[in-house]
Design goal:
This protein has a domain at 10-46. Helices cover 41% and strands 0% of the residues. The chain contains 3 helices and no strands. The chain has helices at 11-23, 28-39, 64-73.
Length: 86
Amino acid sequence: MANLSIRGLDDKALAALKRRAAKEASSVNTLVVRLVEQGLGLRRARTAMTRHDDLDALAGSWRKQEAADFERATAALRKVDPALWK
């Protein structure tokens, strides 16, 4: 791998690179390499990186008994009260 120094980058551009790298949870170097490769057509541009702060990592991780307990505990939440829909 080669090293490259970028001269003449103004403070605004550097600040924007730092903000974007932080937003994407990557280093400025990683971001710049990716942007250069995309700009040269060597790498396809990714769609906007989406960061999820939810429970996706836990999906499907319950044991059968835990799932059954949860279903039983939340069963009342699935009942529709017809009187509320008049």
